Amino acid sequence: MSGPVMPKADAATMKRREEIVADMRVIVPGEGVVDAANEMRVFESDGLTAYRQLPLVVVLPETTRQVARILKYCNERNIRVVPRGSGTSLSGGALPLEDAVLLVMSRFNRILDIDLANRAVVAQPGVTNLGITHAVEQEGFYYAPDPSSQIACSIGGNVAENSGGVHCLKYGLTTNNILGVEMVLINGDIVRLGGKHLDAEGYDLLGLMTGSEGLLGVVTEVTVRVLKKPETARAMLIGFPSSEAAGQCVADIIGAGIIPGGMEMMDRPAIHAAEDFVHAGYPLDVEALLIVELDGPQAEVDHLIGRVEKIAGDNGATTSRVSHSDEERAAFWAGRKAAFPAVGRISPDYYCMDGTIPRKELPRVLAGMRELSEKYGLRVANVFHAGDGNLHPLILYDANEPGELERAEDFGADILRLCVKVGGVLTGEHGVGVEKRDLMPEMFTEDDLNQQIRVKCAFDPNHLLNPGKVFPQLHRCAELGRMHIHRGRVPFPELERF
């Protein structure tokens, strides 16, 4: 496997493979264990398809008790475990390891409880993001976070990556819409964090788990908040002669105190690719396109549309169109949500990046990306969650051309360095995984990273859960100041301990 260096396979584990597979079949009987190489091939990568690796064995449990037994077994025998949801991760978060059990949660696919009085849905982690909305939409409710992969991505994976989507500007990321989880620790303990109540006392362990990328535990149940659909929702298509003008319009809309339900931006290559793919009615004579959705009471929406049109006009907008039906609004969004596959039609391969910047820095970063495009000789199509500064540049390349993948990766790394330089961060919603792992020192000091690893040590002292992800270098927990006990005596024995 090319790409980032992963932890060296444990020889003792590899020698015991047949024994481990047999023991997994005892824990998960039937067809829940896959060990033939040709059958495991479907699991060899996630959405970051540039990197591939067959796992030691694939296990698909159906119950929390089975998950607990698997993790306890692996912990007692020092066997690594890589949790996996639907495999849509774009950062390599679910990339298997040669000596690890790949724990696939796709059989946890049931909605367990719908409690509209408390605006809560309890779902197993393998339920798709869109499946939650489908379960409650007849009653006029929906689940707000909506990644572009929502038809396929699982709610458990959303928790692992803290996924967002086009409506996260107003309604928040996964962390703002999750109420509780049931999870299994590496030692097999089953714990619950949160619940249907809005908040809980004590440390925010639920917040810690959301976005932890499978490094702290395995989620087996998720409680999310669902919202009542707004009375009115209308979308606007606004075209601009330059990306800088569109970026300034975004800043001015937010600066005016207007918080749209969603505000997305696409540049010319992305506009043309999406229009050719879904025929959404996008204008093709503009350099940048904003999709602005306003929702709420009809009178408020009508008023805000007028204000946004004026702001857009002041920024040189050349075209503006407002949806007049839910079908037309859905068509506006269809092109944006299909942008990634649409770009796949104009390039043999593309590399989807994910960085977040302060909104005011958008013109500077766009100019920087154009310079980088010329430097590396690769085209880039830009799709943004413009309202919250989350960028998704799509770097176009051909993996069959020697050196192009490496150039695309270097191009992407420089984009992320630019994001950090202007005051942004390495990721907005895709996670770190293996893709951004070696860039973490660009954003964090060694002390920062060591403190984060201490949290990892508290949950997983032997680094068995998803090792090789997120952190560029893992230290032994003992090296990071874990308590040293000498001849049975702890330091400061007079202090109360818990």
Give an overview in words.
With 498 residues, the protein is α+β, with helices and mostly antiparallel strands. The chain contains 17 helices and 19 strands. It has five domains: 11-104, 2-Layer Sandwich (Uridine Diphospho-n-acetylenolpyruvylglucosamine Reductase, domain 2); 111-228, Uridine Diphospho-n-acetylenolpyruvylglucosamine Reductase, domain 3; 232-341, Alpha-Beta Plaits, CATH 3.30.70.2190; 347-435, Alpha-Beta Plaits (2-Layer Sandwich); 445-498, no CATH class. The strands form four sheets. Strands 12, 13, 14, 15, 16, 17, 18 and 19 form an eight-stranded antiparallel sheet that branches. It has a five-stranded antiparallel sheet with strand order 5-6-10-8-9. Strand 5 and strand 6 form a beta hairpin. Helix 9 (243-255) crosses helix 11 (298-314), helix 9 (243-255) runs antiparallel to helix 14 (362-376) and helix 14 runs antiparallel to helix 15. The longest helix is centred in the last third of the chain and has 18 residues, at 404-421.
Summarize the structure.
The chain has 498 residues and is of the alpha+beta class. It has 17 helices and 19 strands. It folds into five domains: 94 residues, 2-Layer Sandwich (Uridine Diphospho-n-acetylenolpyruvylglucosamine Reductase, domain 2); 118 residues, Uridine Diphospho-n-acetylenolpyruvylglucosamine Reductase, domain 3 (2-Layer Sandwich); 110 residues, Alpha-Beta Plaits (2-Layer Sandwich), CATH 3.30.70; 89 residues, Alpha-Beta Plaits (2-Layer Sandwich), CATH 3.30.70; 54 residues, no CATH class.
Largest sheet: 8 strands, antiparallel
| Range of strand content | 15-25%
The residue fraction in helices comes out at 25-40%
The number of helices is 17
CATH architectural arrangement of the largest domain: 2-Layer Sandwich
**Shape by Cα distribution:** globular
Assign the structural class, choosing from mainly alpha, mainly beta, alpha/beta, alpha+beta, or little secondary structure. Answer: alpha+beta
CATH class of the largest domain: Alpha Beta
Query: Nearest-angstrom radius of gyration?
Result: 24 Å
State the end-to-end CA separation. 45 Å
Keywords: FAD, Flavoprotein, Oxidoreductase
GO molecular function: oxidoreductase activity
Cofactor: FAD
Enzyme class: oxidoreductase
